[in-house]
Amino acid sequence: MQSFQENQYPGGFLHSILPFPPPSTPTSASTAISVLPPQRAHPLTPGSSKERSFIEYVDRRLVDISGRYENRHNVGTLEDEDRTTKATGYESFEKLAVDLESVIDVIWVSGTPSLQIPCLLNVALAVSTYLPSFEFAPRCTFRLLQKLDVAFSSLLHGQNVESGETLPGFDGGRGKLTTTEKVRIRGLVERTRVAVVLVASKDGSVDSASKITETDEGTAHDDTVMAGIEEDDSDRRWEMDVARVYDRTIVDLGVALDTNNHVGYGW
After folding, report:
1. Alpha carbons 59 and 119: distance in angstroms, whole number
2. Which residue, 116, 244, 97, is CA-closest to 185?
3. How confident is the model at residue 215, as a pLDDT?
4. What's this model's pTM, rounded to 2 decimal places?
5. What is the rounded CA–CA span in Å between residue 131 and residue 121?
6. CA distance 159 to 154
7. Dihedral sign, CA of 96, 101, 104, 110?
8. How big is the chain by its Cα radius of gyration, in Å?
9. What local confidence, expressed as pLDDT, does residue 262 receive?
10. pLDDT digit string (tens) for 109-124?
11. pLDDT of residue 30
């Protein structure tokens, strides 16, 4: 039986209806794990109190994240008029990505396609909007985009692309995405891929957390040479990761939509 997190958020939202997803933690690229948490067995009932709580929670989290993003250049704090707490602006994309990942996890756990699709579209839009405002932080950026890629690809298939299991709400042909939703996803995919390329190609834009620094003067020269070699390898790896942004979704959209009526993706 899955454990539930109690009193984690106001109203007991998560512990009342959703298995609490494990916190997102950075992992190496070679670690083979599922990027998304397990889902509910059945979708939330339309019009139920649980569905309303879910919508309110996701909306509130996205508003909070947007507020911290808008306050990113402020040295002080942003006071939340609805609470007594203060929300500080984001200092890096890494911290913002962690918060967005937690929202994606909750959306995915809901197991409700009619809610997952619009909510994930909102998150994807937020990522493409926020990303250019920060220094490039490759690890957290690609991890976040991988979650969205697997989620969108799974929803396009109606089954989890990692496990092959049919998604909740897709039984008997239900839950299929509309052409409008597919077109919206494609637009966000294109926009995000362009944003990643621009941010990654900025001179000196690699986030400091991803760099190796050396203060020992006695080994500075040798370490500089080694760091240069490692940096070249890292750059090549990031180039490959940039090319793989939303790669599953791109392929699936090419199958789902009539590609003869669209200009090719050309990446």
Report:
1. 9
2. 116
3. 38
4. 0.73
5. 15
6. 5
7. negative
8. 20
9. 46
10. 999 999 999 999 999 9
11. 34
Type of residue at 230: E
Joined together, the tokens standing for residue 209 give: 């957390």
Beta bridge mates, 166: 159
Whole-angstrom Cα distance, residue 24 to residue 27?
A: 9
CA proximity to 244, closest of 192, 183, 169, 178? 192
Q: Please give the Cα distance from 85 to 71 (Å, whole number).
A: 15
Q: Output the pLDDT for position 205.
A: 47
**pLDDT for the residue 13:** 47
Residue 98 CB burial class (10 angstroms; 0-12, 13-18, ≥19): middle
Q: Which residues of the chain have pLDDT under 70?
A: 1-33, 75-86, 203-237, 258-267
Q: Which residue has the tokens 């990942």?
A: 101
